[in-house]
Amino acid sequence: MRRLLLLTLLAIPALVHTQAPAYDLILRGGRIVDGTASPWYQADLAIKGDTIVRIAPAITDPASRVIDVKGLIVAPGFIDIHTHARRGIFEVPTADNYVRQGVTTLIEGPDGGSPVPLAPFLDKVAATRITPNFAMFIGQGSIRSEVMGEVDRPATREELDRMRALVTQGMREGAFGLSSGLFYVPGAFTPTEEVIDLARVAGAMGGIYISHMRDEAKGLTDSVRETLAIGEKGGLPTQITHHKVVGKKYWGGSIQTLKMVDEARARGVDATIDQYPYTASATSIGAALLPSWANEGGRDATLKRLKDPATRAKIKDASVAIIRDERGGGDPKNVSVSACQFDPKLAGQNLAQITQGRGLAVTLENAAETAMWIVEQGGCGGIFHAIGEDDLQRILAHPATMVASDGEVAVFGRNVPHPRSYGTFARVLGLYVRDKQIIPLETAVQKMSSFPAQRLGLSDRGVLRQGLKADITVFDAAAIRDTATFEKPHSYAEGVSVVIVNGEIAFQDGRMTAARPGRVLYGPAKR
């Protein structure tokens, strides 16, 4: 008996030694900024599988891996509620430009544009080994185009029924809500009541409404009023996306628009905002510098109008006004080409240079002619320097504002895109938190994590809390910064040291890892 007891006691250390570690990963000694805007505190954080399982002042249990993050910020992974990540996600499924900023979830389908139906596209994303998580809105403009084409008229009752059915289908296939781009064709031709009808469908299924408004310049306040009305009458949360004031003539307009949002919230409208931290926007030359009526019916119809002398003169007059007062920023030099399929050499040149290269004097009228020529040749993407810094800071500081990039998954070195794709989140944390002290660090992180998570109903991530998914960003608050510029946009952000997606390390010590832990996230009505 004694011999048996002795053998048993001798075996116990061996059994203990072979036990599996309690945790897969411990982040030790970091400053926890949990996403709620609460003050940071120092703690260890433990992960098992894809889940945060413990946060405590000191975790001494064994782990498969321990990373010392003393002095660094440990925050929830950032959720970008407005991206055009369809551009590039299959070419660069690692989405390096986003992950290196600490972004762990990309939301697509903004500005009224999405695949219709959604299911085949989301199935393709799910079958692709991606690094960040991925989710979608269903686009009102794409639905209208599917049912009616790009025509300027109200929908018939039958067409409206078909559009409602497509919204229902999109929500059941996983959309988080309805997006609109009422600045773009065919969204620009949509009466407000028609948008409200579709928004009601999305809202009844748990979705939100997010809108690129009709106008961010002369019609700014009317557009904000419409966005708020769609949410109020549609009975669902409503969001002004990439809120800004375009055109020096209209700078300062955010004082009134933010007051309108506050008044709407005071009467019970669930209204919010998102914003990117740059004083330039980006879209196509044709959409930005030609009036929307010139784009009715698609490219062939636009070209036909441009060939008619009388109609071309009207388009030119409207384009001159846009370059002078709105997206042109008052000077053709303020419009640059980001990408151009018909002539890639134009990427990086501004409208003044292109006009001069065509043998024309640089005037507003000749710049408008160049804009029409670009459309005739096949079109180009553009960047438009026409946003006021004071408005930007005022909007960022507003408590209803979250951060979003409006960017794309960049193919490194291709074209001359807007630097927001590489720098949005790092720029807020570096320039507007640390350097300019416009908002506190904890507030900025909340605007990047729990706020968009709450907006989308993502109850399993966006906050560092036991039991939630381990989407985590670790960064140096003293070093984080954007390095991408308008002249040299292909430059990764600095200062992020570790990015974890669904419990797996996706980025560490300046390098992407082999992990591809991203998932498709589905909205509230998914069947």
What are the low-pLDDT stretches, counting only 5+ consecutive residues below 50? 4-17
Shape annotation: globular
Report, as a whole number of angstroms, the end-to-end distance. Answer: 63 Å
Major sheet: 9 strands, mixed
Proportion of residues in extended strands: 15-25%
Task: Give the tally of β-strands.
Answer: 21
Q: Can you give a write-up of this model?
A:
Helix 3 (119-127) links the parallel strand 7 (103-108) and strand 8 (133-136). The protein contains 17 helices and 21 strands. The protein has helices spanning 2-17, 96-99, 119-127, 140-148, 157-172, 192-204, 220-234, 254-266, 285-289, 299-307, 309-325, 351-357, 364-377, 389-397, 420-435, 441-448, 450-456; strands at residues 25-32, 41-48, 51-56, 66-68, 73-76, 78-80, 103-108, 133-136, 138-139, 177-181, 208-212, 238-240, 271-275, 280-284, 335-339, 381-385, 401-403, 472-475, 496-501, 504-508, 511-512. The longest helix has 17 residues, at 309-325. The strands form four sheets. Strands 1, 2, 3, 4, 5, 18, 19, 20 and 21 form a nine-stranded mixed sheet that branches. Strands 9-10-11-12-13-17 form a six-stranded parallel sheet, sandwiched between helices. Helix 6 packs across helix 7. The protein has 527 residues and is α/β, with parallel strands linked by helices.
How would you describe this structure in keywords?
527 residues, alpha/beta
